[in-house]
Design a protein that fits this description.
The complex is a heterodimer of chains A (529) and B (502). With 529 residues, chain A is an alpha/beta fold. Chain A is 50% helix and 12% strand. A five-stranded mixed beta sheet of chain A has the order 2-1-3-10-4. Chain A has a five-stranded mixed beta sheet with strand order 7-6-8-5-9, sandwiched between helices. In chain A, strand 1 (54-58), helix 2 (65-81) and strand 2 form a beta-alpha-beta unit. Chain A starts with 13 loop residues before the first helix and ends in a 12-residue tail after the last helix. The chains are: A alpha/beta (529), B mainly alpha (502).
């Protein structure tokens, strides 16, 4: 990259040297960590495994309990195996994105998943139970009971007060939580039914937001993890959905003690899973490693005051739990009307909002937009052709989206706005405003500014789009090696040594920083590996 | 408290903590400057490096990264119109305009000083008022969050310039795009066309990179901009103290807004930046300069952005709950180091809390120093021939979008947003309103529906803060519009009378 700066001598100031030194210091830290680790001879030897850093894929953003579990595990696993472990976060679709990523990779054991019970509820809820079957649920390592938490200063002081307030005639009790149709929602529904409380579930974006709302006395209770209550002395656990009382909260009764048996398994488990088909010896290696980590005194100590039940379950026992959970979620989500309605045959107007009617309509809209883009510049409205096409595209797509809102769950007493309410509101504002803009455009059409080289943009765009399409085929390195010089030369730059330096410099930078340091797996290509 | 704070500051003034702060700030700036890496991702990436460190040192490093990356996003925004973080979108509006005028040093200098000032202000508020502020923030009803979002949307009136209707269309488009994905209340899939990657909607980072960076490249190629046009920019002088002094009130107001907005869990730095920018324009003596290269605009956005760091730490330290995506990662890091975040930390490890406070204060000076030194390097970007810069930006766009979750889908989304941005730019549609809609859409919708679920629609009229904020937002929307209509009438009347006179 340095030849670029040839024109301006002295452009490598002291600040750059300092930056390099600091970065070097960080890399040295990392190297120190790697050298300090030592392998454990007790792990079974597997030929050719592991041959690269092992990725532990977490399905949430960094910071949650499963992320902390994965990072603590990776730290000890690295020490016991003497091999690098990297935790990578792949949030999206309640875990589907992470699962799909692991399923895309070879079944060689270099990539595995940190999983929780939430994954099962999500897959059932969105009709992707196939993912449950394509995954090998290897081991569960811990669980923690769900607890009902109240505001210690302004809310019910104990279970009796909470229950009495919930049983008062005509009063719906507000329970705060996360995710409609998620594990905690289903547990909340089960608990409310068992204790005969008319409960309204108020979903928040995250546990933290829900706890904040509870501290602000915006709900009566929060259904969450015992750990949530440890954050503040203004939170109090009033009941535990477990077999035994929690060691950290010995004064809090279980639901069974309160006279409501059958709620002993309202918990969230955490464990590990692989793509099906990894070799038996690799599975045995993981078996030994996981056992070593969970028996490590540092692991036990790290979770000592976290109200967590460190319970190891092997694949067989874990598999039974998965099947039980799957059945339970199917049953409850069906009752709550939260399962995808795959059987229902849409008819009439609604049929257009589903494939294949939807695809036909989308194709028609696209064809119309393209037609406008071609015809308008040849019409008497040519001066405003571009903006008119943009507005027409906006309105057409908006109308298509409006049609799609018929597929969404309708407003109901619990959610009086419904999933389609707000999009319809934006559409109701966008459509007339776009029409008004069309009117303005037709009234004050101004010719496009001269001197624009639109053709050059279209060719550059074509090059970039071709590069993106070729990436999965040729791989990142080769595709970039073709694309970068091609675009630079097309744009008119002719100093070939600089072009070569820029291309090689960028490829080296992206390989070191993204691939090696940040574990971004750039496309490898179908042919070139 | 002062003894504890001075002890905390004292413990920071040793070689290792100071070096850790410097490393944190430098890495943070680099992370923030790289489109595709958000502050929360940056902090998470560095967590494994802290395993061998003491908890205090680990937190100092991570907080340093948080502070550095909150500023770093503005650098690429100012230099190449590719904001590294969503909140830097607002900085880029005037920052990049200044760069185009050949004044990148003015933009970078204003940005770093405002950022340090905002960060310092936020830290002092955190030290002095975290408990009462957190207590007030948790009382905010969803209706108030909705009104807050609406107030943020009112910034559209200031972003619009002469194109009020076009800006409004852009924002509504952003709001509509924000509804794509899993409905946060019912859990239903909305407008995803059964595409798995859309289940979480359009990710902000690819949208941001496409909308700003790629569209800038396409527009530049279309205009055939030359290399030499910007070579003078590298010799633009760094601003003097008098320049910063003139901006003191803007800085103070923006820092206060950023800090306060940051305190509310889930609100985020981006809303603070937009609101601060809107108010700065309203109170400015030169409102017409906004959007065309106003140092006040850069100050308003950057001071609010950095102020929000101290604000977001308030619920973390006072209540143990995350105020932002980055503080959620900090909570995880604290747990890894066997610390329980929240008020109990003040009781169990007060020395650590005050060491963190001390480190945050020192970090602002380090940020200022490193930012100033680095600024003289960033400004050299203007010397890179455009043809090379364009290609590098497209590569950065590709890799930055891909890095979010290793998916080519996000790269294609980035390209689609780039195309949309280019076309919108071509016909005078401002881009920032689209991002404003995309950022505020989910906050506005979920809180609107949650408020009605909890207390019915009347809640928007019965809660005084909600009602006041909604009225303020409506006035902010309508007053500029009415003013513009009046002006147009006066101009028309003047034209008629002028014609009559001749």
């Amino acid at each position: 990259m340095w030849p670029v700066f040839d024109a301006a001598p002295g452009l490598m100031p002291r600040s750059m040297t300092i930056l390099s030194l600091l970065l070097g210091a960080v890399l040295f830290w990392q190297a120190q960590g790697a050298v300090a680790s030592s392998s454990d001879a007790d792990l079974p030897r597997v030929d050719g495994f592991p041959s690269q850093p092992i990725r532990l894929v977490v399905y949430t953003s960094p910071g949650g309990l499963i992320d902390v579990t994965a990072r603590r595990f990776a730290q000890l696993a690295q020490e016991h195996s003497g091999h690098p472990f990297a935790v990578i976060n792949r949030p999206g679709g309640g875990g589907i994105v992470a699962f799909e990523e692991v399923l895309r990779e070879p079944a060689d054991g270099h990539r595995f998943l940190a999983v929780t019970r939430s994954n099962i509820s999500k897959m059932v809820a969105i009709g992707r139970e196939d993912l449950i079957d394509r995954i090998h649920w290897h081991a569960s390592i811990m669980d923690n009971a769900h607890v009902l938490i109240t505001n210690a200063e302004e809310g019910p002081s104990d279970w009796a007060a909470l229950h009495a307030s919930g049983r008062r005639a005509g009063r719906e009790q507000r329970w705060l939580g996360v995710d409609i149709g998620g594990v905690k929602h289903v547990s909340g529904v089960k608990i409310a039914e068992a204790v005969d409380i008319d409960m309204r579930w108020i979903p928040y974006g995250s546990g933290g937001e829900a706890v904040a709302a509870l501290l602000g006395n915006l709900g009566t209770a929060y259904l969450g993890n015992p750990r949530d209550a440890m954050m503040s002395d203004r939170l109090r656990i009033v009941a535990v959905a477990a077999e035994k009382r929690l060691r950290e909260f010995p004064e809090v009764p279980t639901f069974a003690e309160l006279g409501y048996p059958g709620l002993e398994d309202e918990l969230i488990w955490r464990g590990f899973a692989f793509r099906r088909g990894i070799p038996d010896d690799v599975q045995a290696w993981y078996d030994a490693l996981i056992r070593k980590v969970v028996e490590d005194p540092r692991w036990v100590e790290a979770w000592r005051n976290e109200a967590v039940n460190l319970r190891y379950r092997d694949a067989e026992s874990f598999g039974r739990i998965i099947e039980r959970d799957r059945d339970e979620f199917r049953s409850y989500l069906d009752r709550l009307d939260l399962l995808p309605d795959v059987e229902q045959q849409a008819s009439g107007f609604a049929a257009l909002a589903r494939p294949p009617g939807l695809w036909l309509l989308a194709g028609l809209v696209l064809a119309l937009i393209l037609g406008m883009a071609v015809l308008l510049p040849r019409s008497r409205w040519r001066d405003g052709a571009g903006e008119l096409t943009l507005l027409f595209a906006t309105m057409s797509i908006t109308l298509l989206v409006l049609l799609l809102t018929v597929r969404l769950p309708a407003a109901n007493p619990v959610d009086p706005i419904g999933a389609g309410g707000v999009p319809r509101l934006w559409i109701a504002l966008l459509l007339p405003l776009s029409l008004f803009q069309v009117w303005l455009c037709l009234r004050q059409m101004a010719p496009a500014p001269g001197g624009l080289q639109t053709g050059r943009v279209l060719v550059s765009l074509g090059l970039f789009a071709s590069y993106l399409l070729l990436l999965p085929v040729l791989g990142y390195a080769l595709a970039s090696l073709l694309y970068m010089p091609a675009l630079i030369l097309y744009l008119g730059y002719r100093r070939l040594p600089v072009v070569a330096a820029i291309t090689v410099g960028w490829l080296t930078f992206s390989e070191v920083v993204f691939q090696r340091l940040l574990f971004v797996d750039l496309p490898r290509g179908w042919w070139f590996g | 408290m002062f003894e504890a704070l001075s002890a905390g500051l004292g413990s920071v003034f040793a070689l290792l903590p100071l070096l850790t702060i410097v490393i944190g700030i430098v890495l943070g700036i680099l992370i923030g400057a790289m489109p595709g890496l958000s502050p929360s991702m940056g902090v998470a990436l560095m967590v494994p490096f802290t395993y061998a460190m003491s908890p205090t040192l680990a937190l100092i490093l991570l907080v340093g990264i948080y502070i550095g990356s909150s500023y770093g996003g503005s650098i690429t925004g100012i230099m190449v119109n590719a904001p590294g973080t969503p909140s830097a979108v607002v900085t880029a509006i005037d920052g990049y305009a200044l760069t185009r005028q050949g004044k990148p040093s003015l933009a970078l200098g204003t940005s770093i000083v405002a950022s340090s000032f905002g960060g310092m202000f936020g830290t002092l508020i955190l030290i002095g008022f975290s408990v009462p502020l957190a207590a007030a923030a948790v009382r905010f009803h969803p209706s108030e969050y909705f009104a807050f979002a609406l107030f943020g949307m009112a910034t559209i009136a200031t972003l619009a310039g002469d194109n009020w209707g076009k800006a409004f269309i852009g924002m509504l488009l952003g709001l509509l795009l924000a509804t794509v994905g899993t409905d946060p209340i019912s859990g239903a899939e909305r407008f995803t066309f059964d595409v798995l990657e859309l289940s979480d909607g359009f990710l902000l980072i690819p949208a941001l990179i496409g909308m700003f960076a790629l569209s800038e490249v396409f527009a530049g190629i279309e205009k055939g901009e030359s290399t030499t046009a910007r070579s003078d920019a590298a010799r633009d002088p760094w601003p003097r103290f008098a320049h910063y002094w003139k901006l003191k009130w803007v800085m103070l107001r923006a820092s206060a807004i950023g800090t306060l907005v940051g305190v509310f869990p889930g609100a985020g730095a981006t809303i603070g930046s937009f609101i601060s920018y809107g108010l700065a324009k309203r109170f400015s003596r030169k409102p017409d300069d906004f959007g065309k290269g106003s140092p006040e605009g850069v100050t308003a956005s950057e001071a609010a952005d950095s102020g929000s760091v101290g604000g977001a730490m308030v619920p973390l330290l006072a209540l143990g709950i995350p105020g932002s995506a980055t503080t959620a990662v900090l909570i995880g890091a604290m747990m890894i180091h066997d610390l329980t975040p929240g008020p109990q930390l003040f009781v169990r490890s007060p020395e650590m809390i005050y060491a963190i406070f001390g480190a945050m204060l020192v970090a602002q000076f380090v940020l200022l120093f490193v930012g100033m030194a680095g600024g003289r390097l960033w400004v050299k970007v203007a010397l890179i021939p455009k043809e090379l810069l364009y290609v590098l930006i497209t590569m950065m766009a590709m890799i930055g979008s891909f890095a979010v979750r290793n998916a080519m889908f996000d790269v294609f989304c980035c390209l689609a947003f780039g195309l949309l941005g280019w076309v919108m730019r071509r016909y005078g549609y401002p881009l920032a309103p689209v991002i404003l809609g995309l950022v505020l859409g989910t906050i506005a919708e979920t809180n609107f529906r949650r408020a009605i679920m909890m207390d019915g629609p009347e809640v928007f009229f019965t809660r005084p803060i909600t009602a006041a904020l909604i009225i303020l937002a409506l006035l902010s929307f309508l007053l500029p519009l009415i003013g513009r209509l009046r002006l147009r009438k006066q101009q028309a009347a003047f034209a008629v009378s002028g014609t009559g006179a001749t």
